[in-house]
Write a structure and sequence with these properties.
This protein is α/β, with parallel strands linked by helices and 174 residues long. It has a single domain, classed as Double Stranded RNA Binding Domain (2-Layer Sandwich), CATH 3.30.160.150. Helices cover 40% and strands 33% of the residues. Strands 1, 2, 3, 4, 5 and 6 form a six-stranded mixed beta sheet that branches. Strand 5 and strand 6 form a beta hairpin. Helix 3 crosses helix 4. The protein starts with a helix and ends with a helix. 24% of the residues are buried.
């Protein structure tokens, strides 16, 4: 009887801890629950910056995040219930810290995304946010090639963070 009681206490404690920390399993998204959106088109976001390939990184990260929800199927516009479009409006890179006062040690990349979710049947805008900010700090590379590689990785990480933010904002606004 004592082992049953201990197991019960551990399970109960685990449930309380998981519920208290905000942890949740992915399940049915608000997109599907409230708007019956199962098929979603996500065309490549527009790049209004001079940063090459950022639009592809953001779009790929967003597609992956939406697929991860489990109830959204990414498809072409012709067979979609809704479309999530957007653009990268700005991109900047700035020095965050230096070594010996004159050599950059860390940089911060920042970009701003605008995104719109539209119901393709009615043409109605379901959700819109014009100020999704993605940031990432990275260490300067010792050569231009290493620096560019570090910057690319930072952009990719920021794109995934932005995709998660868009997913959550889309689902919280309902």
């Amino acid at each position: 009887m004592s082992t049953f009681k201990n197991k019960f206490c551990y399970i109960f404690l685990l449930i309380v801890l998981l519920a208290g920390c905000g942890y949740h399993l992915r399940g049915t998204s608000a997109l599907y629950e409230k708007h019956k959106i199962k098929y979603l088109a996500i065309p490549v976001f527009a790049n209004k910056t001079f940063e090459p390939h950022i639009e592809r990184m953001v779009t790929d990260a967003l597609i992956e995040e939406m697929k991860y929800s489990g109830d959204i199927i990414i498809t072409s516009r012709n067979s979609a219930d809704a479309e999530l479009t957007g653009s990268i409006k700005s991109f900047s890179s700035s020095i965050v810290s230096t070594l010996r006062g004159d050599m950059a040690y860390e940089y911060r990349i920042t970009f701003v995304i605008s995104a719109v979710l539209t119901d393709l049947k009615s043409g109605k805008v379901i959700w819109r946010d014009d100020n999704i900010v993605a940031e990432q700090i990275f260490k300067a590379g010792s050569t231009p090639l290493l620096h560019e590689g570090s910057k690319r990785e930072a952009v990719k990480n920021a794109a995934y963070a932005a995709a998660r933010e868009i997913y959550h904002r889309v689902n919280e606004d309902f």
